[in-house]
Amino acid sequence: MSEQRISETALLALATRALTAYGMPVADAADAAGVLVLADMFGIHTHGVSRIESYGERLDLDGINKTPRIEVTRIAPGLLMIDGDNGVGTLIGARALEAIMQAARETGIAAGFVRGSNHFGPITPYGWRAAEAGFASIIASNATTTIAPTGGKEARLGNNPIAFSMPNADGDHVILDMALSVVARAKIRDANKRGEKIPDTWATDRDGFPTTDPAAALDGILLPIGGYKGYGLSVMVDLFAGMLSGAAFLTGVKSWVDSPEEPQNLGHFFVLIDTARFASAGELASRMAAFTDIIHSTPAADPQRPVLLAGENEMRSLAQARADGISLPKDLIDSLEKKAAGH
Amino acid sequence: MSEQRISETALLALATRALTAYGMPVADAADAAGVLVLADMFGIHTHGVSRIESYGERLDLDGINKTPRIEVTRIAPGLLMIDGDNGVGTLIGARALEAIMQAARETGIAAGFVRGSNHFGPITPYGWRAAEAGFASIIASNATTTIAPTGGKEARLGNNPIAFSMPNADGDHVILDMALSVVARAKIRDANKRGEKIPDTWATDRDGFPTTDPAAALDGILLPIGGYKGYGLSVMVDLFAGMLSGAAFLTGVKSWVDSPEEPQNLGHFFVLIDTARFASAGELASRMAAFTDIIHSTPAADPQRPVLLAGENEMRSLAQARADGISLPKDLIDSLEKKAAGH
After folding, report:
1. Across the interface, which of A109, A150, A174 has its CB nearest the CB of B239?
2. Pick from B35, B116, B20, B21: nearest CA to B68
């Protein structure tokens, strides 16, 4: 597949026009596109502008609201409730983040709880924007059910992503953005194609028992990291992002694939902490330098593979994208151009 | 080993007297003991009053300050910095939690960042107290280095505990309190005694490579849950609890065992969210009932082992301790009595 380089500005304009062609107002389309373009700049192409087509399918079916009225209510000095009115998730996420940053600037810490949302992209772009503005963050979302409670044999929990970020004065913010399964389903599919066994920590068979057979695993359910620990993390994310926000939770979250015309009512939460309140910029910079030095100077088991911090690959990809543009499949750019031109 | 039942009141009085005998003022001793007694009521005996002896050793060496002046500074409406002045960790933790709950009542969300602390017990007691007062919580601490960064062959991170809690009107709060290693070192020791191999996800050998040999693992380093995910979580906890609070972090945390006379300068952080701001008590109760029902009704792989929520065993243990008293080894009670009597 041939790749093409495109600048951030050009990709943002293109993605915005494509979303506008699906019926979104231009200001909303630009905000929704901004998160997806950042995802591509971080190298997270599975969650970048390639998603516009599937967002568009649901916009066409009115499964997502083209013209949502996003409501932000300040329920306490440090707490915001955000009703996304079933808009595109990355639009709701971007607007929520803005509002929460404003509140956190006043109170030192603020949290936003979002309901009525949809897939809001990867979390790294939000964590990075928060870090750029000096905020440490904890951000998470619930998701369609793909994980079983420990000891159970039915998926009742999402592979809920959770992310933490900490600003670094040198621009290399530390950002951990992870889902809770040991591996993505694609990795099991790959093992199946190659006819290889898988570790029994990756998935259960359809009866809820750990399996080393990738075919049985594909028929079964993904296992979370650390067994009951990852299961517990998935529960807690859904309690914060779904239950407390007033969004759908657990099996109440509608499947994107099975019911494309029904609102998913996903929930997210964002906690932002203003690091400028803690110490001078110089002091924080020097602590971060000391911290990252200790990690980077760890002797590596394999000298060819030095120790990295969470987000380091993404920060490198971002720097490269800014310098040289973003490399994307030509087919993808062509199909966005076609959509944007109204074909 | 013979066990003895003792009531909460009697154990609290006894633990308080023992800590007083090590030189702590009685009000401080009572607060420090309260967390440990709760740990025992939750069945977490490894982190209960059995710790008083090791706390006492360090109090005797002045490695922990007997009469700390704990300073709470409100650096923003929703942010507190707490300097524990190297007091007993459970005293500092209990006082910090009180101050943060007060702030969170005003602002809806508040966080406290603690430096100058020591081992503050398990997190479940803090999460439970927060939940009893209607607060959802995220609480974590850094710790002495026992975990290597992914790909590294030296321990540079703690097995940092992190906990999440969500209040439930029926009293069965959901509390996840976990360390970040796949298993505790004790489990590897057990396998070694039995001459059994271990999964290669538990630990590395001394050269940083995953091993199935328990002897090599005991000579090596614990592995975190989910590989780079657990490593990343450990980093993020230390960035929040250590770096941001101004406490020691990573290899800067002194070993409790190797340098008992030196302050550890551990760091913790607490984020509390007032759930009463979100919806009426009745509405929250009904959402929690719906949530817990969905989890509990999951068909179990083994019908003898129904699906549980995080903290469920601890809540049962608490109910039993309240009804029948706390069961502890007679030796432990005897040694606390002896210490309390000044022998």
Report:
1. A174
2. B116
Q: At what angle do helices B26-41 and B52-60 cross, to 10 degrees?
A: 150
Cα separation, A250 vs A146, whole angstroms? 10
| Euclidean distance between CA atoms A107 and A48, whole angstroms | 33
CB spacing of A75 vs B108 below 8 angstroms: yes
- Interface probe for B, chosen from A79, A147, A156, A238 (most Cβ of B below 10 Å), is A79
Compute mean pLDDT per 10 residues along chain A, 343 residues long, and list them: 94 98 98 98 96 95 97 98 98 98 98 97 98 98 95 95 97 97 91 94 90 94 95 98 98 87 95 98 98 97 95 97 97 97 83
Cβ-based contacts of B149 with chain A (< 8 Å): 295, 298, 307-308
The structure's pTM equals: 0.97
Using an 8 Å Cβ cutoff, are B222 and B200 in contact?
Answer: no
Closest chain A residue to B112 measured between Cα atoms?
Answer: A109
Instruction: Tell whether the torsion through CA atoms of B316, B318, B319 and B321 is positive or negative.
Output: positive
Q: Containing H/E element for B81?
A: strand B79-83
State the nearest Cα–Cα gap between A187 and chain B, in angstroms: 15
- Which chain A positions have a beta carbon within 8 Å of B81's beta carbon? 278
pLDDT digits (tens, 9 = 90+) for B189-242: 999 999 999 999 899 998 888 999 999 999 999 999 999 999 999 999 999 999
CB contact under 8 A, A277 and B108: no
Do A149 and B307 lie within an 8 Å CB cutoff? yes
ipTM of model over 0.95: yes
Chain centre distance of CA A134: 20
How far apart are alpha carbons B288 and B172 in whole angstroms?
Answer: 10
Q: What tokens does B255 get?
A: 């070993």
Alpha carbon distance B164, A238 (integer Å)? 12
CATH code of the domain occupying A3-181+224-278+319-340: 3.30.1370.60
**Cα four-point dihedral sign A55, A57, A63, A64:** positive
In tens, the pLDDT along A152-181 reads 999 999 999 999 999 999 999 999 999 999
CA dihedral (A283, A289, A290, A291) in degrees, to 10, reads 110
* Pure H helices in chain A: 8-21, 26-41, 52-60, 89-107, 124-132, 185-194, 214-218, 228-238, 281-296, 312-324, 330-340
Please give the Cα distance from A232 to A117 (Å, whole number).
Answer: 23
What residues form DSSP beta bridges with A140?
A162, A269
Which tokens in the block code for residue A285?
């910079």
Q: Where are the alpha helices (DSSP H) in chain B?
A: 8-21, 26-41, 52-60, 89-107, 124-132, 185-193, 214-218, 228-238, 281-296, 312-324, 330-340
Residue positions counted in chain B: 343
String of DSSP letters for A287-315? HHHHHHHHHHTSPBSSTTS----TTHHHH
Domain borders along chain B are 3-181+224-278+319-340, 281-309
